[in-house]
Write a structure and sequence with these properties.
By secondary structure, the chain is mainly α. It is built from 14 helices and 6 strands. It is elongated, with a radius of gyration of 27 Å.
Length: 339
Amino acid sequence: SYSYVRRTQENLKNPKEIVIPASKRIYVNIPSGSSTRAIAETLEKEGLIEYPQLFRILSKINGYDGLYKPGTHIVSEDLGYEEFMMVLITDPEIVRLTFPEGLNSRQIYDVLSKSQLTRGKDVRAYIQESAEGDFTDFAFLYGLHGLPERREPLEGYLFPDTYDFDLNAAPKAIVETLLKNFGRKIPDEYYRRAQELGMTMDDVITLASVIEREAKDEADRFLVSGVFHNRLASGDESMRRLQSCATIQYIFYQRNGVMLKQISDADTRVVDPYNTYTHAGLPPGPICNPGISSINAALYPDTTEYMFFVARGDGTHQFSRTYDEHLDAIEEYGLNLLP
């Protein structure tokens, strides 16, 4: 009895790794807050144990009660009762995914679909089909007076970061994880700053998304932001057309699922509300999910007299005050439209 107790205590401190061959793997999900009784009933329902009461007695005797971790665990029909317990007190199976800054929502859905997440491919359908009431916990969305009618309702708010998801995470849990991270990363100061600029937070995220796709150079982002702010404040409607190639790319990606290799002059005349060559002001909504650096740039632009910029082709931009200077820059660097 003494040896048995010592062995059990050692298993609790340092659970031994139980290797299960791929051919025999069974995925069992333990909901958060499950009691030992509920866990035993789950295992019985899955056909993994025959005597749930025996499981509960052994769990109590061995000191496993209260130690089981919620989430998806890999088990096998070949495990003994104590081996089940040792598996269920270890960390559940997770999938770690990184969403880089600047991905649009459809690209995020693609990453999820190609992952090991069992429900990742259903995320877009969940978002598209969800009623506004599904997102009432996220005040930053309801600052928009309800979810706007957009092609991608949560575009701009699926915060780019590295995430650990439970292997069996439901679409709702995946979406809420990204939205909660957005809420954590955007402090109250940002909302106050947006008001100072006469912008809503949605305006800020929309502008930040354009900056994200236009400028990869950290220093350039704040100058690009300064140019856009200058143009948005202009009394000349033609100057309020931001003429962002990034918005053209977004239009064609939404239509065809691929980025254009090169943007032609004809592409800039495409009929679409997101076309900032033909429509003044910001596009109707974000064109990607921007990172914190681009959001900072949108909120705190460099004070500048620049009204134009052109890509140099090396990731940086040439900035100009006048249209004549801009034409000279185009002649020097070429019209390097976004690939």
